[in-house]
Amino acid sequence: MIDRGVEFEAVIMELLCSNSKFIVGLPMLSVLDLSRNSFSSPLPLEINKLKNLGKMYISNNKFSGEIPSTLGECESLEYLYLDHNFFKGTIPASLSNLKGMQVLDLSKNKFSGHVPQSFGKLAFLTKLNLSFNNLEGEIPHKSVFKNASALSVIGNNKLCGESRNYGSQQIDLKNNSFHGEIPNEIGNLRRLRGILLSNNSFEGVIPKNLSRCSQLQEITLNNNKIVGNIPFQLGYLSKLIKLTANGNALSGEIPSSFGNLSSLQILSLAKNNLEGSIPDDFGRLTSLVGFALGANKLSGMIPPSLYNISSLQTFAVEYNQLNGSLPSDMGLTLPNLRTFSVWGNQFTGLIPISLANASRLQNLYLNVNNFHGAVSTSLGHLKFLVRFILETNHLGSRELGDLRFLTSLNNCTNLELINISNNNFGGVLPKSLGNLSVQLSGLGVGSNFISGSIPTEIGNLINLDALDMRQNLLTGSIPTFIGSLHKLNALILSNNNLSGFIPSSFGNLTSISILDLSHNNLQENLPSSLGNLGKLQALNLSYNNLSGIIPQNVISLSSLTYYMDLTENSFSGRLQSQVGQLKHLGQLFLSNNKLSGKIPRELGECESLEYLYLDGNFFEENIPPSLNNLKGIRELDLSRNKLSGQVPEYMGRLSFQYLNLSFNDLEGELPQEGWSHDASVTTYIAPATNGSISYIAPDNVLYGSIPLDVGLTLPNLQEFSVGLNHFTGPIPNSVFNASRLKVVQFLSNNFTGTISSSLGHLQNL
Fold first, then answer.
1. What are 207-252's pLDDT values in tens digits?
2. pLDDT (0 to 100) of residue 675
3. What is the spatial distance between Cα 264 and Cα 236, in angstroms, rounded to a whole number?
4. Cα–Cα distance, 92 to 96 (Å, whole number)
């Protein structure tokens, strides 16, 4: 069977390509419409034969190659749509010969180079679309596009220059690299209906004379560098529907004249430096649908009249300094709410029960305020709810029934995120938790007073990405079903009273990057299955009762980048050489275990380490020379071990902020290198430029003298402890020049001489 689509394409391309006699045979062709097909060949040079062609529509095809310059010989062309193809190369200047051109659309191609200056000859051009190409250089100016009523150059990231007076009904320059000030001349464009300048680098202030553009319906200035006050004159634009200026540096108060914008539907001024109160006159904006003033410095109460604008769908005033309480009937007066965001303010009072009447509510952000009292079970009527965020308030009463509302949320089948952390909720987690929306990706109940066990039904929430139950009163064992939550990225169960063992099923959490089970009563050995967690970046099992050898495939998890903390357990045996595979790890804490043997030289291969704590173990023999490779080390604690030998010379060259070698069997003289060379590290202390310093080396067998200039080279010293050694000579007077010293300890040495009167100047001692 013949493919009619292919046959048709072949016929058309024959007409347009090699067989020019067919084209010559169509001298009266005035309209050519091939749009929304799959034509793919380049345009033929012979297209100039179509002298009477007035309209050419070849949009949404796969035409490729360059536009032939001969197209500029089709003198009758008025409408030329070449958009949504694969044309490349430069835009031919010959198109400026098309004197009658009214509409030119070259968008969504791969054109490069500059926009031809000669386009200024197109006196009748009303619409020009050059969007989403690879055009570069400065946008043409002077008379170019002077009569265009619609101009779009968005999506050309290398196009730059200053904006100009184009005489358009719409100036669309968004998503480019324009700079300079918004020109005052725009105020002369009386027909202008839209100014779309978002995502550029415009500077300066908003021109006051924009108020002369009485037909303006849309002003979008998001994500520029605009400063100064918002001109009150913008309140005269009675036809304005949308005004957005997010992400600038606007300051001052919001003009009360905006209350006159009776047609306004969208007002968004978030992420600026606006201050003062929200004007009372805003209650007159009865057409308002979106209202966003977040991330400013606004204060005072929200005008009560704003809560009566029944058309409002987005109400976002987060991260300000607003106060007061929410009206008890707000769910009745704002029935069309989709998003209500007031987080990061100082609101007080109860959460209105009437919110359940805003039946289309999707996002509720009440976090980081001072709300108190109970959470109503009526919120379970919000069947479209997606995000439910109440964290960091004073909700709940630490009583048994505080969490009843969680069961009511089973009706919210679109829920993706619940966070009620850092409140006063008591009671136990209901088994119905497992009946929450299968779409739930985040559940946070941490920092409350929740008791009882973790319900096994939580294993039903198969799309969980983050589970945070930290700092509660939870008891019992960790359900093995948690290991079936294969999408978990973060699991935090720290600071509870959980007991038993770490389930080996946790080895199935192959997407997890943060695992924190610290500060519990977990026991037994560490399951080797944790070595399967190939995306783990942070592991914290500190302050438990875990024992046995640290498995090789755990101590060598090369994905770890942030920290591994196994502090305060009962791990024993040697620290295995595979630790050297932690090449990207920044922090390793193994304090207060029962580890023994040598400190493995492979630790020196962990070149990203900044914090290394091996204190409180049974490590012995010398400090390995390989630690010299830890060039970024800031804190090192090897205290309370059985280390012997001398303090390595290289320690004077490492940039410590804290060094503790106390309570070992070290001996010999202190290294002298580094005390005063280029502000580098001394034997135990970092340079002055590295912040707070501690110097701790008591209870060893060190001898020799302390460098005389130690307090000058280390002015940030906070603790200087060298007791229980065999140091000789004077106590350097310069020690007391370190004005931040809080602790000095010299006991049981062989120091001689007097103590400087400068000791009295240490006010923090």
1. 999 999 999 999 999 999 999 999 999 999 999 999 999 999 999 9
2. 40
3. 12
4. 8
What is each CA distance from 264 to 299, 339, 594, 666, in whole angstroms? 23, 18, 69, 76
Tokens for 676?
């005063």
Give the pLDDT score at 14. Answer: 45
The phi, psi pair for 508, rounded to 5°, reads -85, -5
CATH 3.80.10.10 residue ranges for the chain? 1-118, 489-645
What's the chain's average pLDDT? 86
Distance of CA 422 to the CA centre of its chain: 22
Residue type, 100: G
353/333 Cα distance (integer angstroms): 13
Compute, in degrees rounded to 10, the torsion defined by CA atoms 177, 181, 185, 190. Answer: 60
In order, the DSSP letters of 550-580 are PPHHHHT-TT--SEEE--SSEEEEE--GGGG
Identify the DSSP state of 134. Answer: E
The answer to whether residues 581 and 603 touch, using CB atoms and an 8 Å cutoff, is no
CB 173 within 8 A of CB 150: no
Q: Which CATH superfamily is domain 1-118 in?
A: Ribonuclease Inhibitor (3.80.10.10)
Nearest in space to 514 (alpha carbons), one of 492, 487, 494: 492
Return phi, psi of residue 116, to 5°: -60, 130
pLDDT average, residue stretch 48-58: 90
| Helix (H/G/I), strand (E/B), else coil: 73 | helix
Q: Are the beta carbons of 631 and 654 closer than 8 angstroms?
A: yes
**Torsion over CA of 43, 46, 47 and 50, rounded to 10 degrees?**
-160
Q: Check if the beta carbon of residue 146 is closer than 8 Å to that of residue 120.
A: yes
Q: In angstroms, rounded to a whole number, what is the distance separating the alpha carbons of residues 204 and 194? A: 20
Residue 438 CB neighbours (<10 A): 11
Residues 733 and 712: beta-carbon distance below 8 Å = no
User: How many C-beta neighbours within 10 Å does residue 358 have?
Assistant: 25
pLDDT at 707 over 70: no
Please state, in angstroms and rounded to a whole number, the distance separating the CA atoms of residues 479 and 688.
50
Q: What's the CA gap between 123 and 715, in Å, rounded?
A: 74
Tokens of 234: 């913008």
CATH 3.40.50.720 for the 489-645 domain, yes or no: no
Partners of 700 in the beta sheet? none
